[in-house]
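During the first year of the project, the team set up a workflow for recording each protein of interest as an amino acid sequence followed immediately by a discrete structure-token representation. This format lets reviewers and collaborators read both layers of information side by side without switching files. As required by the reporting guidelines, we include two representative entries from the current panel. The first entry is reproduced here exactly as it appears in our internal archive.
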Amino acid sequence: MFTTNAFAELSASISPTFMQGYVVIMFILVVGGTLYDVLHKGSARYFFDNWRAARKSGKQQVGGAEMVSVAIHTAVVDVATSGEFCNPQRRVAHLLGMYGFLAYVISTAVMVFGYPTTAAVTPTLWPVLWHIGALMVCVGGYWFWFFIRVDVAAEGHSPWRLMRADLFVLSLLASVTLALIWSYLQSSGSGGAKVFFGLYLLATTVLFGSIPWSKFAHMFFKPAAAMQKRMSEADGSRSKLPGPADKPEIFGSARRQPRHY
């Protein structure tokens, strides 16, 4: 299972052209949905207006070298290692989901376009990466859903309580979970593989087609927001917020620390 290109095996019953066309459509949905989200919510306009306002209220000029340093720091700390999360469990779960999703998507594209049939031998790396990426998303996603979500961990709500904000996480988990089940059934020759492949396509279509209504696009906004925050700290504007206190007040007790984002 882990070393088999499930898409190549599927080419015996479904045309590789169909799979490649489907991936292209999903890519178009991501681009179109993100642009619609930006225009509909005015995110880009708000971001640039806020950036200009912060620069005007800045107390010092930020040079080119310092700006490059801030950009590198943002890429390494805020993007690559999710340094904005104070909760270490939430940070690890997020990193598992992020890097797992990247491995899952990249390996999918490579196998569908580079090795679409069994005639082309797929390097073992790609199916292994595809399965590991899907498992990483499952571990990080289900861990977050059942144990880390603030409305479950801190507010005591049921993990089965659903809101529109949960659409991205749930559709992502459904996509990777069904992908793993389909891959297992197909590699073992068990019945129901085509049924789960259809469910896998349905969940994936919801994932990439629901961007205007889900939190999918936030992965593109967060790096820009992190960069803006660090720039406001560098030029002294601090987004019009007061500086940190010398002796910040500690909430909660020594026996039980507060549980929050």
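The second entry, processed by the same pipeline in the following quarter, appears below.
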Amino acid sequence: MKKKNFRFSVNYILIGIIVVLLVFLKRMDDRITVLEKRETDVEKVELKKEKTPHKLIPVVSPTTSRGTIGILNDDVSDGFLNLDVPLTYAVIPGHEYSKSFGEKAIGRGFEVIVHMPFENLANKGGEESFVLSTTMDSETIQERVQAALDEIPSAIGMNNHQGSKASADQHVMSNVARVLKRRNLFFVDSRTTTETVAESTMEAYKVPTTRRNIFLDNEDDEGKIHAQLIKLAEKSEEWGAAVGIGHVKPKTLKILEKHIPELQKKGYKFEFVSKMLH
């Protein structure tokens, strides 16, 4: 009887163990099924991502100027000194007002360079005691450049006045470059001839330099001056920066007074020529 009861107990225990194992296996099977389903769902999502074109998030760039404009005015007059933007004035040596005009421009917050007379093909003449000629020796050229700079001590650079002949002459430009290099000054090539070697010579002597891109007022007509100013702005936008040369003419002043504020509102920046060198 005891053996029979013992067998029954063992059987119940075995049945209980089997039931527990079956329940455990069932739960494991369900869990595996859930995991497989999740993996399948993830694979579907990843596949969908691959098939869907990637959308680029627009990058908003910081506000920048549309272009930087440098205006170099050959000579100085009181009206131009009222323009409320950085401007560069080129003062010609050899006149009684040269030094005082340079000082006046500096006092009003502008910058000044020497407007150096160069020999030209049309033989229009110039300030005879300063004009640089292709027939001069190196000593004479350098002496004249130094004398011009001494006469206008506020000057931080130089550009050529006329000079279609001399600015195309390597001998002349090399001697100008030597003086500017010694005095740590810069040169702006007015480009009065396509044959000019001024800019390339300055680069060779490691003198900071740039070039004129637009003449504003070769024709003394308001409509044409305005058109040239707009062209200068367009060049500055295309290249990043551009330099225009104007003269102290009433019509030029009128156009600048009217249209500089308009260009500023459109995003153009005006800067000293000395900030636009290479």
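For the second entry, the following points were noted during internal review. The first strand starts at residue 67 and ends at 74. Strands lie at 67-74, 88-91, 111-118, 157-162, 186-189, 209-211, 214-215, 241-247, 268-270. Both points are flagged for discussion at the upcoming steering committee meeting.
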